[in-house]
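A reminder from the course coordinator: this example appears on the midterm review sheet, so study it carefully.

Given structure:
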């Protein structure tokens, strides 16, 4: 049996619990170190609750990176689950220590920071996974494969929407409402970047220019709680993106529709076990996870027989499992894990959205990195 990969964690909260569950699901990782809080008592309490060696519970990430790198039994990879403004400095400390990184999105709070991390990853030869977990769903991978095979024909339209309601009233923002901690984008940086990545991953098409409108509905809020854009793709396709955290009745309604000259696809994150496919002129089909016609990419991301639902945690765990394969030098199917380049391109999208909205919707080209 392959030994689990030694992993550490910086940060905590809700997403910390999600990441730890994802790490455990397939037995690929063992959590052995962490910096869960800068407060010594909280750090010790968190470490004790996770049955960690007290000597490997830290109160700052710099010390953790240095000491773990110096140990023969040190961690191989670190998981970063902190507010956005800390992603880049924490990732930098561990990359420079030669430790692989799993980072919550967004990669940083600016494209400049993200590009600096990209250079560090290449210089130190480490791997970085960005947890855009929706790309771990089997249905999403099946949609990507169908498009790559040309099943839809020439792509014409891409529509992606992400609606939530938890910011419909003032006072619930937490650190996500503080530009110093969250960065310059609110709903756009929190869920808009997920919507962008889902469309980007499935279609494989890059946005050429976009016309954006960001708005803040709740009085006193410093960051956007709504964003929308018209999209023009480099191959001539057109698109639309809309994200809102002030839409009552919506929890995590992330939906993607892609239409081509020969057919269309529709995915709904709240019903993730199915992909809806319409071949032009034929009845609408429900393609079940692990059902007839499944391919290598989506079968590899499916753990249970069709009809036994899999969802958010399994998709999250799939990224961890695929990253474990990559760290071990194994070869999973062609699934294109979200990495440091994905993070840079995502920040280029965010900054183009901000610039366009500030210019009254002027068509703006994302400054995607080039080699």
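Designed residues:
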């Amino acid at each position: 049996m392959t030994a689990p990969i030694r992993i550490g964690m910086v940060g905590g909260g809700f997403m910390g619990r999600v990441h730890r569950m994802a790490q455990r699901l397939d037995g690929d990782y063992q959590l052995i170190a962490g910096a869960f809080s800068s407060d010594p008592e909280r750090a010790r309490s968190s470490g004790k609750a996770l049955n960690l060696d007290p000597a490997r519970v830290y109160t700052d990430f710099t010390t953790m990176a240095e000491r773990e790198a110096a140990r023969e039994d040190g961690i191989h990879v670190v998981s970063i689950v902190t507010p956005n403004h800390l992603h880049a400095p924490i990732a930098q400390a561990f990359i420079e220590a030669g430790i692989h990184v799993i980072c919550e999105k967004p990669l940083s709070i600016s494209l400049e920071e993200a590009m600096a991390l990209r250079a560090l990853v290449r210089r130190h030869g480490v791997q970085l996974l960005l947890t855009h977990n929706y790309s771990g769903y089997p249905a999403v991978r099946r949609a990507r494969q169908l498009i790559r095979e040309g099943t839809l024909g020439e792509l014409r339209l891409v529509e992606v929407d992400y609606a939530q309601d938890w910011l419909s009233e003032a006072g619930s923002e937490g650190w996500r409402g503080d530009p110093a901690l969250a960065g310059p984008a609110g709903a756009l940086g929190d869920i808009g970047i997920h919507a962008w990545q889902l469309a980007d991953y499935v279609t494989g098409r890059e946005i050429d220019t976009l016309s954006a409108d960001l708005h803040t509905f709740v009085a006193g809020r410093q960051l956007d709680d709504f964003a929308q854009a018209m999209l023009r793709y480099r191959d001539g396709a057109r698109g639309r993106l809309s994200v809102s955290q002030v839409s009552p009745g919506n929890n995590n309604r992330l939906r993607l529709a892609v239409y081509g000259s020969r057919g269309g696809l529709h995915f709904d994150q709240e019903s993730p076990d199915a992909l809806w496919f319409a071949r032009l002129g034929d009845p609408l089909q429900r393609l079940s996870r692990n059902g007839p016609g499944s391919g290598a990419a989506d079968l590899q991301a499916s753990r249970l027989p069709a009809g036994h639902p899999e969802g958010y945690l399994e998709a999250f765990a799939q990224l961890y499992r695929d990253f474990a394969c990559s760290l071990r030098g194994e070869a999973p199917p062609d699934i294109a894990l979200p990495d440091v380049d994905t993070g840079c391109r995502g920040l280029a999208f965010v900054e183009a959205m901000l610039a366009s909205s500030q210019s009254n919707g002027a068509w703006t080209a994302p400054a995607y990195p080039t080699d």
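The chain is about 35% helix and 20% strand. The chain has a mean pLDDT of 95.
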